Amino acid sequence: MFYSSKNFWAYKIFPIIVGMTVCFLLMYSTPGQGKVYLDTITNPELAPFPIAVADFTSPQKIDGQVAQNIQRTLINDLEISGFFRVIKPENFPANAQVKGSLLDASDFDAWNGSEVNALVAGSFWVSGDSLLGSVRLYDLVEKKFIKGVRYEGKKEEWRRIAHRLANEVVLQISGEKGVFDTQIAFVSNKTGNKEIYLIDFDGENVRQVTRNKSINILPRWTPDGKKILYTSFMKRNPDLYAIDLASGNNYRISYRNGVNASPTWLSDAEGEKMILMLKQGNRSHLFLTKVGDKRAIPLTSGLNNYASPSWSPDGKRIAFVSDRSGTPQIYTMNMQGNNIKRVSYQGSYNASPAWSPKGDCIAFCGRQNGFFDIFLATPDGDQVRQLTKGPYNNEDPTWSPDGRYLAFSSTKEGGAAIYVMNINGTHQRKLTTLRGNATNPAWSPRLE
Amino acid sequence: MKSIRVAFILSLGIHVVFIGVSSFIARKAKMQPSFYTVTLLQGSSETYRGHRQRKDVTGRKVEKKIRHHVRRREPKTPKKVADSKSETIKEMTSSSKEKEKVKNSKVKSKEAASDYEKVQNAIAQIHQKEALKSVEESVAEIRKELLEEKERAEEENAEEKAAKLNQESEDATDERVSSPFQGYDSQEGELYRTQLWSLIHSQWSISEANLDKSKDLEVRIVMRLSKDGSIQDVKIVQSSGDSMFDNSALLAIKKVGQFPPFPLEIALESEEFEVSFVPQEN
Fold first, then answer.
1. Residues of B with Cβ-Cβ distance to A27 under 8 angstroms
2. Looking at residue A92, what is its pLDDT?
3. In chain B, whose CA is at the least distance from the CA of A47?
4. Which listed site, A337, B3, B56, B108, has its alpha carbon 20 to 30 Å from B135?
5. Contact B207 A48 (CB under 8 A)
């Protein structure tokens, strides 16, 4: 042999095998099944989704008002969402006839070339105390019926029905349910005292929740959306209370000497848990408590202050504010109070962290040039984005349950009011128009 | 881009075939007992010719083969040759020159020999010169071969990397080859693809409120078209994670509704097209 067998294998056979294998992989791994790749499509036209909402009809003339109210509320919801351009009946194509909620195949043709993608048509009527309705959603692109929904409720619930209808439209078109029937809790001093209020997503339906004429601040929702936790001075010491929204009953749930405030609540397999800030003496620290357990387990300790906890949606980490580096900054830590990581670095004052429902970012407010603005950061702090900019304060961001909006309080028009914006900072709209200041917004979870 | 990929694959295929064929030839060559060819001369010319034959064939690790021969000739040749075991090609050349010198001296020492021997010597000298020439030639060739070898190895490396990359990108490359729409020489296919692209792009819109440009959104959609250009099936094969973004892309395809029929040159009943949507080019 002129070649040792080792060389033979290394230099002759091996490359052949490798070569053949690569060749086969490249050429014959998916015989027959061809797929053609187009170049990547980029830069879409920036335009909201055009949707037509036909007049909601009513069999009895007397109920026309309800049908109109629902239609108006639906149109408003879709418009303020920032995702839709609503085409109203007066702008329909001349020969587009929509009567009731039923569309014939021939009715679609009237929309040819109209650039409208979808159509909502419906009718509502009142029977005794109850409100009945039938709404259908049509796809004008593929010329087909998408979904029909029947509604039955009390007459005075028309607003809620309209919001739910808007939710359904968004679900059918975007694949994700809307948040039009959610509410935002906030603090207003309209009556001279700081009390908790609720307002609908569309800025309607304001109602007062607490009426104890002391100071009530920092509302937070329980995950089931049935109770609001808040800190009240009604018994002098700032204790933590829960109010049941259905019954109006108040419960005092934490009343250690000092401040009991800003709870973040989590329901998981272990039950209901809450992290809250307790301020005793000059220092505030974070404590973990479980429902039905009187103990409060300290998560932080030492000479610095820790405040404003916000649970990550997976329940594994907590965002909070601390002055451990000298100035108030945003940090995250695990459930044992360890593995602390800093999130915010710019500016000398960052506060009010709120972890997004999808877990991918943390909203907070930070001071720049003497004013607070809203920022978004990735939980590792690598990317930070400023959402608001103004010579006024924008504070206390709170997430909508679908993670598409942020509510915050702003002094844009003088007194503080609650605003809502899309999370890229666009479509800011003022929600509250109450006298005095509206602050401390807290967005509800989805309400079923 | 696509044509480059195709070119890559083709050239890789050619190389693979080349390696395969050349290695078969190499095996045949081994059977030739060229190293044992007996000559009148003691010179190493024949041996090196042998080398040349072998080396042509494999092109790989020529040095090692040379090393083998040197060892084999050890007992016959002066020590200097044996010493030149630390073989680079340069050393090979020098060692063979030394061998020649040794032979020359031998020739001189036999001046008193018969005419026949003189003639023989003269012939031998001529042969030696020829041998030297041929050695030099072969060395040059070996050098050339080695250079080529290096280049080829580099090429192969690059191709292997490219192949790996392609495979990593969802084993997509393999499929690309098999459609006439994708052929690098298919102008009709290229034109048709561009048509599809611009039709879909013209229909794609999304509300600004929903477009978070900071996020890396990408949705990939596969649609099957009949040869008349009608959509048989559309499905999302990789979601962007943002349902509104996904739906905006789906809607763009649906809004096109009817695509142009396949070019006549392309005789397919239907074909799958994959297209991905991203908000912004990076």
1. 9, 13, 174, 177
2. 87
3. B207
4. B108
5. yes
Q: What is the DSSP letter of A12?
A: I
Q: Is residue A432 within 8 Å of A410, Cβ to Cβ?
A: no
Residue given tokens 């603090």 in the structure block = A187
Confidence of residue A445 (pLDDT cuts 50, 70, 90): very high
Contact call for A43 and B178, based on CB within 8 A: no
Tell me the pLDDT tens digit for each residue of A28-85.
Answer: 444 345 688 888 898 888 888 999 999 888 877 666 688 888 999 999 999 988 889 9
Q: Do A43 and B181 touch (CB under 8 A)?
A: no
> DSSP assignment, residue B260?
P
Alpha-carbon torsion (B119, B121, B125, B126), positive or negative? positive
Secondary structure (3-state) at A13: helix
ipTM: 0.71
Beta carbons within 10 angstroms of residue A8's beta carbon? 15
Specify the pTM: 0.68
Burial A176-205 (b: 16+ CB within 10 A, else e): bbbbbbbbbbbbbbbeeebbbbbbbbbbee
Strands, E assignment, A249-359: 250-254, 259-268, 271-280, 283-290, 297-298, 306-311, 317-322, 329-334, 341-342, 350-355
Mark yes or no for CB contact A44/B210 under 8 Å.
Answer: no
Query: Cα distance from A414 to chain B (closest Cα, Å)?
Result: 26
- Count A/B contacts: CB-CB distance under 8 Å: 188
Domains along chain B with CATH numbers:
2-168 (no CATH), 179-277 (3.30.1150.10)
pLDDT tens by residue, A332-355: 999 888 899 999 998 899 999 999
Burial of A412 (0-12, 13-18, 19+ CB in 10 A): middle
Query: In the predicted model, is pLDDT for residue B167 greater than 60?
Result: no
Residues of A in contact with B226 (CB under 8 A): none
